Amino acid sequence: MVMRYVEVHGERLSAIGLGTWQFGSKEWNYGRSYEEKESAAIVNKALDLGVNLIDTAEAYGWGRSERAVGRALSSRREEAFVATKVFPIMPVDPVVRDRARRSAARLRVDTIDLYQIHWPNPVIPLNLTMRAMAGLQRDGIVKHVGVSNFSLGGWQQAERFLSGNVLSNQVRYNLLDRRIEADILPWAQETGHVVIAYSPLAQGLLSGRYSAGNIPDGLRAYTAAFQPGNLARAEPVVEVLKGISREHGATPTQVALAWLIRRPNVVAIPGAGSLSQLQANVEAADLELSDDEDSELDQVSKAYRSSSGPNAAALRAVKAGQLLVSRTIERYTKPIKSAW
Q1: Domain encompassing residue 86
Q2: How confident is the model at residue 280, as a pLDDT?
Q3: 175 falls within a domain
Q4: Catalytic one among 30, 60, 115, 210?
Q5: What is the pLDDT of residue 312?
Q6: What distance in Å separates the CA atoms of residue 124 and residue 231, rounded to the nearest whole number?
Q7: Does residue 44 lie within any of the structural domains?
């Protein structure tokens, strides 16, 4: 097996990275044993297989994911390109600098290779956040700056305010969600930036395991993609994935990842619940699709249209999201209030 790499601004990133949202995050129901033992085995196996991009965030398990990654990398720091994200509640200079140092401590690193703004903040001017990012670079706490869930205009504005390169934009990108191809991806390819594709398998929908008669449990059951109507609309894409996977002796998951990283300047960060799932994800880097197979996937996926109409599950998800935001704001503002 041979890993592919994307080279940008002096960095060499594995085309298949490792997303670690599930490390310590209760919403994925993996448990403490997974967080403390299996996660370390997964990170170390990923490094053995040539994966160097390890992505986490302070919001993943409220620091538990970062701690798990830090423990796993304790003796192999130089083999990894470590990326994390600041949760943008009050992302002004002193707050961002403090959050970065706390993330670095949890990760057990002197320098964070890529520090990303997790979401745009609609209230705080972006120049204030980028001023903090520039200061972190000067102090050596952060090597590269990135953004996540930003529009193209927001990404370009971030770069102007930084007066330097904003290496990446981490965005949702997969065969069923190709919105970034309108502007973000072409700009990244033209200018030598990188797109970090999260949810590259549409939260497992592209694995072929689910259908209108087999909806997953847990968090995914409340998302629009897994409503029966949308599952039915995705079936033509999944069937093509299955057909191509049979030709290659692969899985639909591997074909979906291989299609994604065939795009220049794109790396994908699927999660892994087990060593076997990690191995399968990484093997996608060694899968060569033909131009005809790529074209077939291109055409069938462009025909997919999801419905985001209201339904009971979606409304429950909105309420759950509102509760999460409320608790997050309370968590991050409590220290500020006590300081007052």
Answers
A1: 8-204+250-290
A2: 97
A3: yes
A4: 60
A5: 44
A6: 38
A7: yes
Q: What is the mean pLDDT of each run of 10 residues along the chain (340 residues)?
A: 93 97 72 78 97 97 94 95 97 97 98 98 97 98 98 98 98 97 98 97 90 72 78 94 98 98 98 95 97 98 77 46 51 43
List beta partners, residue 171: 197
CATH number of the domain to which 83 belongs? 3.20.20.100
Instruction: Give domain status of residue 275, yes or no.
Output: yes
Q: Judge whether 127 lies within some domain.
A: yes
pLDDT at 310: 42
Q: How many domains would you assign to the chain? A: 1
Give how far Cα 240 sits from Cα of 175, 207, 285, 297, Å.
Answer: 11, 12, 19, 7
The question of whether 304 is a catalytic residue gets the answer no
